[in-house]
Structure formats: C-alpha cells, structure tokens
Amino acid sequence: MRLALALASAQPVGLRLFRFIPGYDTNIVLAGKEPLLLLLLAFLITFALTRLYTRLARLYGWGSGSVHGVHLHHMVVGIVIVLVTGLIAVAASPGYPWIHILAILFGVGAALTLDEFALSLYLRDVYWSDEGRSSVDAAIIGVVLVGLLLVGTSPFGITQAEAQEPRRVAFIVIAACFAFTATTFLKGRLLLGLVSVFFPPVGVVCALRLGKPGSPWAHWFYRDRPEKLVRSHARFDESGRRLRALKLRLYDLIGGAPSKEQARRPEAG
Question: Are residues 134 and 243 in the same domain?
C-alpha cells in the first residue's frame, strides 16, 4: 500500500497534453511550467484565429458584433477575460487543474486584447492602418516574454544562489543590469532591450553600440556630437530600410496589409 502511494505521489501532476514529447514531464510538468505553456499556446491559437476572421470579414464585408448599435471590439471581451481570470488566480490561488484552465483563458483574453492594442494606444480605430501594426508589435513582444519565462531564464540573469550573495553585491549587479537594459531601450532597440532583461550580455553589447538616429539617446547625446549622428545614420539608415521592408512584409503576412482608405473598411472583431 505504501509503495503504491509513493509511486502515485511521484507521478507528475498536470494535464500532460504533450507527454509524448521526450522530457515533457520532467522539464515542463514537474517544473511547474505547463500552465505557462498552455497560456502561450492559447495566445497563439486565439491570435491566429482572430486575425483570420478579421481578414475574412474585411475581404467579404462581414458584419461585426454590436450592443445597442455600438460596435463591440473583441479587445473589450479580452480585457474582461484577463481581469476575471487574474482576479480568480490572485484571490483563490487554485491548484490543478483550475490553474491550467485559468492559464488557457488568460491566454485567450490576452490575445484578444493585444490584437487591438493599437486601438487603445491611439484611442481610435486604426486596426487596418499603418498605426495598427503596433498591435502585431505588442503580440510579438508578449510571445517573446512568455517564451523567455518558459525556458526558465531569470530577470537580469540573477539566479537564486546569486540572490543570496551580500546585499551590496546583489544591488550592484541588479543596478548595472538595469542600467544596461534601460540604455538599450533608450537607444531604440526595443526587442533587444526586452531580451536583455533575461540575458544581460545582450544589454551590455547594445549599450556600448551606437543608438538609432531617431532614438531618445540620439536626441539627447548626439546633437552636440554630429560625427556620432552621421555614423548612426550610416549604420542604421540603409540596413533599417531593408529590415523595415522585411518587417512590413512579415507583418502584412501576420496581420494583413493596411487599407489605403481606413474609413471604408468594414468593422471586424
């Protein structure tokens, strides 16, 4: 009887949806990362299906949901889902399997919210405009952030053992990492700045390199040093144009190309 109980307690506790993948139980379930994985998958699937629907609605002129004549953006539904699931997770601290269900619902709500992130940023319907591409930016950053958490990295690369070092040493390390990350953001390298939160060497490299011409760093520190501004333009302008063209093609593939006449598009969502 005791042997049976011991074996039962040693079994991983979780939905184990992908237990056929080698190392899944050890690296995901036992590590407590299955809810995070389910959140990421729910986010990706919901975002893909939402973009598919809105593109089809745009193409075929389908109508959209409304309440008393007011268009109900799916961002509103997403915010409600995120708030409710977050409140339940904080208030009830649920265990298996409810935490997994909440993670899935949170991923769905986050996808619906970030898919229309640009609407909340510009306070107008820019879903199919150039400004609407910021929704894709937000979704990509969200996926990268969850992915970094999923692979087990710690903010600023501080492990539990390092956190137990003398307070002065820990403070200096965290402050230095924060400074490099902030500098990376100020130099206009947003995605690399996010990565540097979890991999500080990226922030060190970016902090030592030139900032982008239009970045706050260039505005503050390159105005009185024209040679650096010239070097910044020489480094980023041509490569920036190529990367921007590639980025726009990728974003058009993910989210659909912007409309030339935003006002004529059908409401979708």
Answer: yes
pLDDT tens-digit series, residues 127-145: 998 888 889 988 988 998 8
51 and 126 both lie in a single domain:
yes
The stretch 109-113 carries a mean pLDDT of: 96
- Residue 122 tokens read as 């510009």
Residue 220 sits in the same domain as residue 97: yes
CB atoms within 10 A of CB 177: 20
CA distance 129 to 149: 32
Single residue among 169, 186, 209 that ends a domain in this structure: 209
Q: How many CA atoms lie within 13 A of 204 on its CB side?
A: 11
Exposed / middle / buried, residue 205 (Cβ in 10 Å: 0-12, 13-18, 19+): middle
Domain membership flag for residue 202: yes
How far apart CA 92 and CA 87 sit, in angstroms, is 8
- Quick one: tokens of 169? 């040493």
Number of Cα atoms under 13 Å in the Cβ half of residue 56: 6
Tell whether 85 and 112 lie within a shared domain. Answer: yes
On the question of pLDDT at 267 being above 50, the answer is no
- The secondary structure of 205-226 as a DSSP string is HHHHSPPPTTSHHHHHHSTT-H
Tell me the pLDDT band of 7, cut-offs 50, 70 and 90.
very low
Compute the C-alpha angle 80/85/88, nearest 5°. Answer: 125
Do residues 224 and 161 share a domain?
no
Domain that holds residue 95: 14-152+212-264
Which strand (E) or helix (H) includes residue 66?
A: strand 66-67
170 and 140, same structural domain?
A: no
